[in-house]
What we know:
By secondary structure, the chain is an alpha+beta fold. It has 2 domains: 18-280, no CATH class; 282-419, no CATH class. Helix content is 63%, strand content 16%. It has helices spanning 2-29, 35-54, 65-89, 91-95, 102-135, 142-169, 172-201, 208-240, 247-281, 323-326, 337-343, 352-355, 383-392, and strands at 284-298, 301-314, 330-335, 347-351, 361-365, 368-372, 375-381, 398-403, 410-412, 414-415. The strands form 2 sheets. Strands 1, 2, 5, 6, 7 and 10 form a 6-stranded mixed β-sheet that branches. β1 (284-298) and β2 form a beta hairpin.
Amino acid sequence: MTKLNTLELMNLSFLRGIRVIPLIKRDILSTKNVWLFVILAVGGVWAFIYYFTLTRITDLNDFLVIPGFVIVFLGYGLVAHICRVEDLNRVNKRMIQLPVDYRILILSRYGSSFLLIGMVLLANCVLYFLLYILAGSERVQTGNFSNYFFIVFHLLLVIISIYIPFYFSKNSNVATWGMRISTLVWLIYMFFLPSVYFQWTHQQYVPEIYYERLGIYLTLVSIVVLILSYYISLWCYRLKWRNKGSFLPLGNLVICIAVLFMGAAKLAEVNTFTTVKNTLHEIKVEGVHVEAFPTDTVDGLEQYRIFIFPEFSSNQLSLYRDWQYVERGLIIVTVTGTTSDYLGLHGFSIPMETAFSLGSYRGIHDGREHFVTESEAPVLLSEEEKKSFLTHFDESDFIFELESRWLDGKIEMDWIQEDK
Length: 420
């Protein structure tokens, strides 16, 4: 008996799947009048990007936001177009009179919306990777594209998850206003709240890696929201045709989205701090060398000015570009032993923005980024003092500590020789 029931359920699911296909086809065909505009919009934007990238006027990364905006705009437009056509032709009211299960009707709308959005997204991905082949990896970086892909894909899922329940609970006009308000809240959530929160809580700017992690978490969360949205749409549809209000299901949807999005933001924050801390802990001291340069002559004796050149390295290969990592940080140097006696120097500090700036960058060696900065000793040495100092110089007289708001207090920096 159980086996028979299982087969019946499988057959029922199969029949529902077959019935969904004609409805999806109907939705897609209803957008045929706008596809010329879609093709011209996508083609025009990418022709503009191809021209500026292939002529080496600029890199693609400067323009990635443009196709992202176009994808979202066109995706929303296609989904909204299907629903507006139904409202204008009163198709939705006639559909309820047909022997079609409302669950199939709603499932088809999610399927057609996802398919239309997927077609636009796929076309942009193909054009991107074609440009990657033509222009090369130096001008087209796949890392930045993946970040935009996650953000755009998440936003498209959110459009489907919010617009369709509001449409089935009321109409396309209410769904449009719901999307307008949701878009405003999303912009505040993505660009305003993180900046205010990081400045208020951590006194730091938001690093790019935060948005990378947030895009991944939001994509995963949006898939959950999409599934939840489908069941909310079923709930709203039943209430609508019973002439009952749909505030409760829509309110539950909004609350669930808020909770899940706040959770994604918290996970991205925790992951960001872990990544930045690991990056800072991984910075090593490669060595310290000193040089003496002749300066003024006093009583016929030549004086020498001493310059100290600490060298640091990191295997993150992005430290000087991720300036938020080193912003407002200090490298505190303690000078001990004979070096302190010769130079009359007990310590000094180096701003991390200076130590890991583009001017201090010395390239990649042995898979690590190297940075060299300089500091000047406060005293001048005579010829004899200079020779004695250089002879007895010991770089182990220098102790380096790193202080940053990303860390819990100060950490002592390791020497690279200790790891070899």
